[in-house]
Amino acid sequence: MGLFLLGNFIDFGGAFRIKLGLTILALMWILTRHNTLRIWFKCRSDLFVLLGIPLVLGLTHVTTNPSLGMSEGLRNLYNTISAPLLLLLLPLFHLTGASRTQRMILVGMGIVALAMITLAALHVGGAIRLDKYTAWAQRYRVGFIGIDPRQPEVPANLRPVVAPRVGFTLVLGLGLALAASWTWTGLMILGLVLLMSRGMWLGAMLAVGLWFLLNRYPRRLKLTKRKLLVGLMILMAVITLPFLINLKPLIINNAKEIIFRFSEVRRVSDLNTQIRIGHLDGYKEIITSRPIGALVGFGPSVGIFNPILETDVKSTEIAALNLALWYGIPYSLLYSGWLFGSAWQLWRLRRRPDYTREDTGLIIGAVAFWIAGNTNPLMTSPMSIIALMLIRTRTLELTAHDSNLNS
Known about the structure:
Blueprint: H1 2-10, H2 18-30, H3 36-42, H4 44-64, H5 70-81, H6 90-96, H7 98-124, H8 134-139, E1 143-147, E2 160-164, H9 170-180, H10 182-195, H11 198-214, H12 225-240, H13 242-245, H14 248-267, H15 271-289, H16 293-296, E3 304-306, E4 311-313, H17 319-327, H18 329-347, H19 357-372, H20 382-398, H21 400-406
Antiparallel strand pairs: 1-2, 3-4
Helix pairs in contact: 1-2, 1-7, 4-5, 4-18, 7-9, 7-10, 7-20, 9-10, 9-11, 9-19, 11-19, 17-18, 18-19, 18-20, 19-20
């Protein structure tokens, strides 16, 4: 499990082929376990909805569309179902255990946030120039690392953007961190501040709001004298350490910029919002000309014309729109409902004696990540499926006693 998660964190974009190799290795290992088939059978509904349906629809589109080559069609189909294919690793999560896997993910995301903070601090201090690595990061699908071009009036050392693709998963990590400690929570929030993403900021606010809403009783926060002392020491370190003092102007500048971008969304005046509206206009045009596509989609090889970009787009920033384009509106609704339904199934078990606040953190992190991930789009990413598998594993653990009684 450790190697599999390590590959997903280091090679989130997949350009280094590390993630693929470690995933295949993990799959080969679980095929040697005696209970693999039993776990797959228990989760057969997940496999059918998230993998079986798009596979059947995708193959149908590929074989019935003669204008596209078979090899290109199959390649595009694989790109759309590569994340759900990770569901085959459900036995690995079951064998490792939900709590242990959750701690591994939290540590991994903490390292990601710490790396982002370190890079930003080195840039602010003048030790490195992040804009020198922008081309490298884009070439290897790491994400965007450089200087924000939208604030020319602000000094370059206060405009670094450390937005690796894996950094967008910190919303999930924030939910796990809220259930762990305030130290982890502060680390995730600082990483999200440096991310400069409206969607992820919105997801972070949603996660924090859900945490205080679902944990209505202060006693569940378990604030002991030791934790208060540790929190006070961390606060003093944040105020006094020169390393973090240099980041204060950057944090303030980022907060102002994100607030400004939210106001732009309200006025529909920024380019990113206009591009998303262009995606919706393009989809409206294609289903108007071919209404059947609204039900069964158009396949993973068909694009839509965006009037803002003035070009065809095969994959948009809106995850639900991508699913509707590929496999139809009903499947897009089914996919989203299936994810949130899994979180609801785990939440229904909250009165069980072995249900913990870590389970609540997992639910909050997954829900906030799925909502925010609809705009990036990360709702159809491998980390989204990992969150689902973690919830499914924990649900199976809590209901294992019931299964034993019925068998």
